[in-house]
Amino acid sequence: MITPATRIGQSTAIEMSRAEAEVKAAVIIAQQAPRNLETARTEMQFACQQYPLAEKAFFSYRRGGDTITGPSIHLARELALIWGNVQHGTMELSRDTALGQSEILAYAWDLQRNSRSSQIFIAPHIRDTKQGKKSLTDLRDVYENNANLGARRLREAIFAMLPAWYVAEAIEICRATLDAGNGQTLDARIEEAIEGYSRVGITLAQLEKKLGRPRDRWNESDTTELQVIFQSVQRGEMTRDEAFPPETVTVSEITGQHNEAPQ
């Protein structure tokens, strides 16, 4: 006996059949038209030498007292596209507004090798703010929160599915592309970085402290690091204060200043 809870509508049944047939067809096509490894590698090398991709290829964010960096979801999607015969994505399986959380699936599937990496996780409807954790109730806020958390898991799924040598070479080329500076001289890149950070309230002194050396000793890797951090702040992966914590003054310093005798 079919109960109301288990009844499937005609349109839903048709969609399920269509999706099943689509997956079967994709697997057959992948088997009949396998990827060419040399072609995939050549296309990857060309793509990673393009500055617009390289400047979005890395992320940086704060966790505890450490800065975590790595290859971004933008690079993961590009590599999956070039690798070919791959399906990937995220799917919201359920949403519980009473508990304030969603259940989400992130997956990456190599149809040719039948290699699949997937993860089901719980996404709390919460956002961290300076004032503490904030519960999300607006549908747009919940959607953006789920999309952000889903992108992180999707990145992990894609990189787990792709060959390690392929990913490692892509990362190395993207780093070299950033270090080359898109045809700019080192001095021009340094001035551009200083000017860009100054527009968001970050001083040269803060940049020098971040890199651990004065401006006249910066090299290509330093400007690349500043660029990755700037892009991460722009994308909202970490805040300006997380990247460059404001200077703090201790109570003893304040007391000492107040107790100084006038000259």
Strand order of the largest sheet: 3-4-5
Order of helices and strands: HHHEEHEEEEEHHHHHHH
Which secondary-structure class do the elements indicate? Answer: alpha+beta
Uncertain spans: 1-5
How many β-strand stretches? 7
Residues in helix, %: 40-55%
Radius of gyration: 24 Å
**What amount of the residues lies in strands?**
15-25%
Shape: flat
* Termini separation: 94 Å
Largest sheet: 3 strands, antiparallel
* Quaternary assembly: single chain
| Number of helices, where a helix is a run of at least 4 consecutive DSSP H or I residues | 11
* Average pLDDT score: 86
Short recap of the structure:
Helices cover 53% and strands 19% of the residues.
If you had to describe this structure to a student in words, what would you say it looks like?
This protein is an alpha+beta fold. The protein has a domain at 184-245. The protein is flat. It has a three-stranded antiparallel β-sheet, with helices on one face. A two-stranded antiparallel sheet has the order 1-2. The relative contact order is 0.11. β1 (58-63) and β2 form a beta hairpin. Mean pLDDT is 86; it is low at 1-5. The protein contains eleven helices and seven strands.
